[in-house]
Amino acid sequence: MEEWPSDAEMRRRYARQPEQREKRRKYARGYYQRNKEKVKAANQAWRERNPDKVRDAMKAYAKANPEKIKSIAKRHYVANRDERLEAMREYSKRFLGPGHMVRKAGYPALVDEVIEYAGGVCQGCGAERSGGKVGELCVHHLDGAPTNNVRENLMLLCRSCHVTFHVEMRGRV
Question: What are phi and psi of 63, to 5 degrees?
Fold first, then answer.
């Protein structure tokens, strides 16, 4: 396996030759293609030795590219929805007791019934859901018990009213 020239050697070779940059890039791409595993192992070892630099570089990248980070996060969020829900259910069963946050078989139909009953409008402030997105409105349990899925115990609220309702229920306002 050939050895990668040092930075000093590369600077010396191409210092006064700006037109050689493409040649250097092509050489680097070729080296990477020929020595993929070695380069990946070296990069991984460097990341393990320099976690602070990696974290700082990631923060700088995120700050410079907020839209790209949002799109990546959104794709990851959407792609891993089932895993997240399963993890949430497992956590709920383990730490919060049986029945908490574990939706019964007919729950989606019940949500549809609540949305239809409320006319797709927040029952707190009257805000309408836009674009048919259900995510902007939440089904709230009036008695605070997530297992009590009786129609009379459910209310449709926008996120703002839902948070306000929970804060008031806890007596923090």
Answer: -70, -35
Q: Do 160 and 108 share a structural domain?
A: yes
pLDDT above 50: residue 99: no
pLDDT surpassing 70 at residue 134: no
114 backbone dihedrals φ, ψ, rounded to 5°: -65, -40
**Considering its fold, how many domains does the chain have in total?**
2
Domain for residue 53, yes or no? Answer: yes
Position 81 in a domain: no
Q: How many CB atoms lie within 10 A of CB 120?
A: 14
Least confident of 87-96, 106-115, 117-126, 161-170: 87-96
Nearest to 157 by CA among 170, 148, 167: 167
Q: Please name the amino acid found at residue 89.
A: R
| Radius of gyration from C-alpha coordinates of the chain | 27
**What is 25-60 written as a DSSP string?**
HHHHHHHHHHTHHHHHHHHHHHHHH-HHHHHHHHHH
Could you tell me the residue range of the domain that residue 21 belongs to?
A: 7-61
Whether 173 shows a pLDDT value over 50: the answer reads no
Predicted local distance difference test score (pLDDT) of residue 15? 65
Distance CA 100, CA 114 (A): 20
